[in-house]
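Same chain as my last thread, 222 residues:
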Amino acid sequence: MPPGPLVRALALFALMAAWAWLAHQGSAGEGDPDFSAALAALPIVAIAVLFLWRVGKPLWIVVGGLTLFAFLAWLWPALRENVALLYYVQHVGTNLVLATLFGRSLFGPREALVTQFARTVHLGVISVAKERYTRQVTIAWTVFFLAMALVSTALFWLAPLAAWSVFANLLALPLIVLMFVVEHGFRHRILPPGERSSVADTFRGYRAAMQRRHSDSLAKHP
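reply #2:
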Protein backbone atom coordinates (compact mmCIF):
# COMPACT_ATOMS: atom_id res chain seq x y z
CA MET A 1 0.00 0.00 0.00
CA PRO A 2 1.42 3.47 -0.90
CA PRO A 3 2.44 5.73 2.04
CA GLY A 4 -0.48 8.16 1.58
CA PRO A 5 -3.34 5.64 1.80
CA LEU A 6 -1.49 3.74 4.54
CA VAL A 7 -1.19 6.87 6.68
CA ARG A 8 -4.87 7.68 6.13
CA ALA A 9 -5.87 4.12 7.04
CA LEU A 10 -3.77 4.20 10.22
CA ALA A 11 -5.14 7.62 11.16
CA LEU A 12 -8.71 6.39 10.62
CA PHE A 13 -8.02 3.29 12.72
CA ALA A 14 -6.53 5.41 15.51
CA LEU A 15 -9.52 7.77 15.43
CA MET A 16 -12.00 4.89 15.58
CA ALA A 17 -10.10 3.22 18.43
CA ALA A 18 -9.99 6.48 20.41
CA TRP A 19 -13.70 7.07 19.76
CA ALA A 20 -14.57 3.53 20.91
CA TRP A 21 -12.55 3.88 24.11
CA LEU A 22 -13.98 7.30 24.98
CA ALA A 23 -17.49 6.03 24.24
CA HIS A 24 -16.86 3.07 26.54
CA GLN A 25 -15.60 5.35 29.30
CA GLY A 26 -18.64 7.59 28.98
CA SER A 27 -21.13 4.72 28.80
CA ALA A 28 -19.64 3.08 31.88
CA GLY A 29 -19.90 6.36 33.80
CA GLU A 30 -16.13 6.83 34.07
CA GLY A 31 -15.77 9.97 31.93
CA ASP A 32 -16.74 13.61 32.29
CA PRO A 33 -20.55 13.69 31.77
CA ASP A 34 -20.56 16.85 29.65
CA PHE A 35 -17.78 15.62 27.36
CA SER A 36 -19.33 12.15 27.12
CA ALA A 37 -22.77 13.57 26.28
CA ALA A 38 -21.25 15.87 23.64
CA LEU A 39 -19.36 12.97 22.08
CA ALA A 40 -22.49 10.80 22.03
CA ALA A 41 -24.59 13.59 20.51
CA LEU A 42 -21.99 14.48 17.86
CA PRO A 43 -23.08 11.91 15.20
CA ILE A 44 -26.73 12.91 15.61
CA VAL A 45 -25.84 16.60 15.29
CA ALA A 46 -23.64 15.86 12.26
CA ILE A 47 -26.50 14.05 10.50
CA ALA A 48 -28.88 16.94 11.26
CA VAL A 49 -26.37 19.51 9.98
CA LEU A 50 -25.76 17.47 6.81
CA PHE A 51 -29.51 17.24 6.21
CA LEU A 52 -29.95 21.00 6.67
CA TRP A 53 -27.00 21.68 4.37
CA ARG A 54 -28.50 19.49 1.65
CA VAL A 55 -31.76 21.42 1.87
CA GLY A 56 -29.76 24.32 0.49
CA LYS A 57 -32.07 27.14 1.61
CA PRO A 58 -30.37 29.67 3.93
CA LEU A 59 -33.53 30.37 5.92
CA TRP A 60 -34.09 26.68 6.62
CA ILE A 61 -30.43 26.26 7.60
CA VAL A 62 -30.60 29.15 10.09
CA VAL A 63 -33.98 28.17 11.55
CA GLY A 64 -33.05 24.49 11.70
CA GLY A 65 -29.67 25.23 13.28
CA LEU A 66 -31.16 27.49 15.96
CA THR A 67 -33.90 24.95 16.67
CA LEU A 68 -31.36 22.16 17.02
CA PHE A 69 -29.20 24.27 19.35
CA ALA A 70 -32.19 25.23 21.52
CA PHE A 71 -33.38 21.61 21.64
CA LEU A 72 -29.95 20.37 22.74
CA ALA A 73 -29.69 23.11 25.38
CA TRP A 74 -33.12 22.16 26.73
CA LEU A 75 -32.25 18.44 26.79
CA TRP A 76 -28.70 18.82 28.06
CA PRO A 77 -29.36 18.16 31.78
CA ALA A 78 -31.12 14.92 30.84
CA LEU A 79 -28.46 13.95 28.28
CA ARG A 80 -25.54 14.33 30.70
CA GLU A 81 -27.38 12.14 33.21
CA ASN A 82 -28.20 9.44 30.63
CA VAL A 83 -25.05 9.13 28.53
CA ALA A 84 -25.31 5.35 28.31
CA LEU A 85 -28.89 5.57 27.04
CA LEU A 86 -27.76 8.00 24.34
CA TYR A 87 -25.05 5.59 23.18
CA TYR A 88 -27.54 2.71 23.33
CA VAL A 89 -30.01 4.51 21.07
CA GLN A 90 -27.16 5.36 18.70
CA HIS A 91 -25.86 1.77 18.60
CA VAL A 92 -29.22 0.05 18.20
CA GLY A 93 -30.46 2.69 15.74
CA THR A 94 -27.39 2.28 13.52
CA ASN A 95 -27.73 -1.50 13.42
CA LEU A 96 -31.46 -1.36 12.71
CA VAL A 97 -30.91 1.13 9.87
CA LEU A 98 -28.27 -1.16 8.34
CA ALA A 99 -30.49 -4.22 8.81
CA THR A 100 -33.29 -2.36 7.03
CA LEU A 101 -30.95 -1.25 4.23
CA PHE A 102 -29.84 -4.82 3.54
CA GLY A 103 -33.13 -6.53 4.39
CA ARG A 104 -35.50 -4.44 2.31
CA SER A 105 -33.48 -5.24 -0.82
CA LEU A 106 -34.47 -8.90 -0.39
CA PHE A 107 -38.10 -8.11 -1.18
CA GLY A 108 -39.76 -6.66 -4.23
CA PRO A 109 -38.40 -6.33 -7.75
CA ARG A 110 -34.95 -5.04 -6.77
CA GLU A 111 -31.89 -7.25 -6.45
CA ALA A 112 -30.29 -8.02 -3.10
CA LEU A 113 -27.94 -5.24 -1.99
CA VAL A 114 -24.71 -7.28 -2.14
CA THR A 115 -25.76 -8.50 -5.59
CA GLN A 116 -25.99 -4.85 -6.66
CA PHE A 117 -22.46 -4.28 -5.34
CA ALA A 118 -21.20 -7.30 -7.30
CA ARG A 119 -22.83 -6.14 -10.53
CA THR A 120 -21.25 -2.71 -10.11
CA VAL A 121 -17.79 -4.24 -9.64
CA HIS A 122 -18.20 -6.63 -12.60
CA LEU A 123 -19.78 -4.10 -14.96
CA GLY A 124 -23.26 -5.58 -14.65
CA VAL A 125 -22.35 -9.19 -15.52
CA ILE A 126 -22.30 -11.93 -12.86
CA SER A 127 -23.04 -15.65 -12.96
CA VAL A 128 -26.15 -17.30 -11.55
CA ALA A 129 -24.00 -18.89 -8.83
CA LYS A 130 -22.62 -15.53 -7.77
CA GLU A 131 -26.08 -13.97 -7.82
CA ARG A 132 -27.33 -16.72 -5.52
CA TYR A 133 -24.30 -16.40 -3.24
CA THR A 134 -24.52 -12.61 -2.94
CA ARG A 135 -28.19 -12.89 -2.03
CA GLN A 136 -27.23 -15.28 0.77
CA VAL A 137 -24.57 -12.80 1.94
CA THR A 138 -27.21 -10.06 2.01
CA ILE A 139 -29.37 -12.28 4.23
CA ALA A 140 -26.35 -12.97 6.48
CA TRP A 141 -25.62 -9.26 6.96
CA THR A 142 -29.28 -8.56 7.68
CA VAL A 143 -29.31 -11.24 10.38
CA PHE A 144 -25.98 -9.98 11.74
CA PHE A 145 -27.20 -6.41 12.23
CA LEU A 146 -30.49 -7.58 13.74
CA ALA A 147 -28.58 -9.84 16.13
CA MET A 148 -26.31 -6.95 17.12
CA ALA A 149 -29.35 -4.82 17.97
CA LEU A 150 -30.99 -7.68 19.89
CA VAL A 151 -27.89 -8.54 21.93
CA SER A 152 -27.25 -4.85 22.61
CA THR A 153 -30.80 -4.43 23.91
CA ALA A 154 -30.61 -7.54 26.10
CA LEU A 155 -27.28 -6.50 27.63
CA PHE A 156 -28.34 -2.89 28.15
CA TRP A 157 -31.45 -3.79 30.14
CA LEU A 158 -30.34 -7.03 31.82
CA ALA A 159 -26.57 -6.75 32.39
CA PRO A 160 -24.29 -4.20 34.06
CA LEU A 161 -23.68 -1.09 31.94
CA ALA A 162 -19.97 -1.88 31.79
CA ALA A 163 -20.72 -5.26 30.17
CA TRP A 164 -23.06 -3.68 27.62
CA SER A 165 -20.52 -0.97 26.85
CA VAL A 166 -17.77 -3.51 26.17
CA PHE A 167 -20.04 -5.19 23.61
CA ALA A 168 -21.46 -2.04 22.00
CA ASN A 169 -18.38 0.18 21.99
CA LEU A 170 -15.32 -2.09 22.10
CA LEU A 171 -16.47 -5.26 20.33
CA ALA A 172 -18.74 -3.83 17.61
CA LEU A 173 -15.98 -3.09 15.09
CA PRO A 174 -14.01 -6.32 15.74
CA LEU A 175 -17.24 -8.29 15.24
CA ILE A 176 -17.84 -6.57 11.90
CA VAL A 177 -14.26 -7.37 10.86
CA LEU A 178 -14.80 -10.99 11.96
CA MET A 179 -17.95 -11.11 9.83
CA PHE A 180 -15.95 -9.98 6.80
CA VAL A 181 -13.29 -12.62 7.51
CA VAL A 182 -15.87 -15.41 7.83
CA GLU A 183 -17.63 -14.29 4.64
CA HIS A 184 -14.28 -14.16 2.85
CA GLY A 185 -13.63 -17.76 3.87
CA PHE A 186 -17.03 -18.92 2.64
CA ARG A 187 -16.52 -17.01 -0.62
CA HIS A 188 -13.28 -18.90 -1.30
CA ARG A 189 -14.94 -22.23 -0.52
CA ILE A 190 -18.09 -21.70 -2.57
CA LEU A 191 -17.09 -19.58 -5.58
CA PRO A 192 -14.45 -20.43 -8.20
CA PRO A 193 -11.39 -18.11 -8.40
CA GLY A 194 -12.76 -16.08 -11.30
CA GLU A 195 -15.96 -15.32 -9.40
CA ARG A 196 -14.35 -13.98 -6.23
CA SER A 197 -14.19 -10.30 -5.34
CA SER A 198 -11.88 -8.75 -2.78
CA VAL A 199 -13.06 -6.75 0.23
CA ALA A 200 -11.77 -3.62 -1.53
CA ASP A 201 -13.93 -4.50 -4.56
CA THR A 202 -16.94 -4.84 -2.25
CA PHE A 203 -16.36 -1.38 -0.79
CA ARG A 204 -15.92 0.12 -4.26
CA GLY A 205 -19.16 -1.53 -5.33
CA TYR A 206 -20.90 -0.17 -2.24
CA ARG A 207 -19.70 3.38 -2.90
CA ALA A 208 -20.68 3.21 -6.56
CA ALA A 209 -24.12 1.79 -5.73
CA MET A 210 -24.75 4.47 -3.10
CA GLN A 211 -23.63 7.22 -5.52
CA ARG A 212 -25.98 5.84 -8.16
CA ARG A 213 -28.86 5.80 -5.66
CA HIS A 214 -28.07 9.38 -4.69
CA SER A 215 -28.02 10.46 -8.34
CA ASP A 216 -31.34 8.69 -8.98
CA SER A 217 -32.85 10.38 -5.92
CA LEU A 218 -31.71 13.82 -7.12
CA ALA A 219 -33.14 13.11 -10.57
CA LYS A 220 -36.54 12.23 -9.07
CA HIS A 221 -36.53 15.18 -6.65
CA PRO A 222 -34.65 18.06 -8.37
